[in-house]
Design goal:
The protein is α+β, with helices and mostly antiparallel strands. It is built from 10 helices and 14 strands. Strands 7-6-11 form a 3-stranded antiparallel β-sheet. The protein has a 3-stranded antiparallel β-sheet with strand order 8-9-10, with no helix packed on it. Strands 1-2 form a two-stranded antiparallel sheet. Helix 1 crosses helix 5 (174-196). The longest helix is centred in the last third of the chain and has 27 residues, at 293-319. The protein starts with a strand and ends with a helix.
């Protein structure tokens, strides 16, 4: 059986790709997995650690200084569309979903006039007979819009993270962090419930008249109704009048039951790990792997922000090459504030190298 086919355009051989992908655009993660919308609501909208981690990385990508081969290209990348910052939105989508789809809106002359990041869960890939993308379908409710995949001047630029089991969709960080996010959210709910109950189960009413009798059904219901009047934060500390045979037995939690704090902190560190953010920058206690915030901030840029920014800019540059003669896009490392000390050390070592010529020194510091 042939596993390669030839493109009619240039005769180059391309391998066949799989076609067993999810129509919704969300990578298949196994039976019973929650939808992307559910994961975003639980893991991003309701979890402070994950939300802050994503905003740190995405905000860093949006703020990095850029250098472009064409000033018009730089203006196009930095312009806001429908109120959204392109780079920040794309970076957040790459972290959460693993895919980003940038629609290229054209003017009357067919030139690229605006870039808009589509919601990735609404986009699905339409493949040709060989499994290669032929078009992208954008669905909102019952409506759909088909966007062609022109190799020279595409309507959509598809950026995706690496996925070892899918040929068409990338793999985001949200799924890997879902377990830790669930633990963290459950610990927060547990903590809230404890605070509502004065950090302990308040106690129990014990009926002990001494003759072995029990409350009748009518007495039990009346007692329950009276107890409801003492519930809630507004009744904290309110004295209770007990009838004969009733006594209040206070209760408390054991230290093992109160260990939810350690469990919550461990889950928060795992969430930070999934998104590539040093825990120190998220305000998590007990993480002293970095000497100070400056070192942690440098690690954030080196290990998370710059690799993601480079991948996004490379994809945008390739997709926009049909409109710009020089579509080069890159991060200007000389102007990244977090790397100022590294640049200073490099300049000092290069300046002290007397055996290098001026041109060689300029090349080493990136000015050639």
């Amino acid at each position: 059986m042939r596993i390669f086919r030839r493109r009619q355009a240039d005769g180059a051989a391309r391998p066949l790709l799989g076609q067993g992908w999810a129509r919704s655009g969300v990578p298949i993660t196994g039976g019973g997995a929650p939808s992307y919308e559910t994961q975003v609501r639980e893991g991003y909208a309701r979890n402070a650690v994950a939300q802050r981690a994503v905003k740190l990385v995405a905000g860093g990508v949006a703020d990095v200084p850029l250098v472009a081969g064409d000033p018009a290209l730089l203006t196009l990348i930095q312009a806001r569309s429908a109120g959204q910052s392109l780079l920040e939105t794309v970076a957040a989508q790459m972290l959460l979903h693993g895919n980003a789809y940038v629609q290229i809106l054209r003017d009357g002359e067919g030139n690229a006039a605006e870039l808009y990041a589509l919601r990735p869960e609404r986009v699905s890939v339409e493949a040709d007979a060989g499994g290669w993308p032929a078009a992208y379908t954008y669905r909102v409710g019952t409506r759909s819009h088909r966007l062609g995949a022109d190799p020279v001047r595409p309507h959509v630029i598809h950026l995706k993270a690496f996925h070892p089991l899918d040929d068409h969709y990338g793999l985001g960080c949200l799924g890997a962090a879902a377990g830790a996010i669930g633990i963290h959210n459950a610990a927060a709910a547990w903590n809230r419930a404890l605070l509502d109950n004065a950090a302990r189960p308040s106690g129990a009413l014990v009926y002990d008249p001494g003759d072995g009798s029990v409350l009748s059904a009518e007495q039990f219901e009346r007692l329950r109704a009276e107890m409801d009047g003492f519930a809630g934060a507004g009744n904290a500390g309110r004295p209770m009048l007990l009838e004969g045979g009733l006594k209040w037995q206070a209760m408390s939690l054991s230290p093992a039951d109160m260990d939810f704090v350690g469990c919550k902190a461990a889950a928060a560190r795992e969430i930070a790990l999934a998104f590539g953010v040093p825990p120190m920058l998220l305000g998590l206690p007990g993480d002293n792997a970095y000497a100070n915030y400056r070192e942690a901030n440098r690690a954030l840029f080196r290990l998370a922000v710059l690799p993601l920014a480079t991948a996004i800019l490379s994809g945008l540059s390739q997709g926009l090459a049909g409109w710009f003669a020089d579509a080069a896009l890159a991060v200007d490392l000389n102007r990244v504030t977090a790397l100022a000390e590294e640049r200073q050390a490099l300049w000092a070592s290069v300046s002290a190298a007397d055996f290098l010529s001026a041109e060689e020194k300029r090349h080493l510091v990136g000015l050639a």
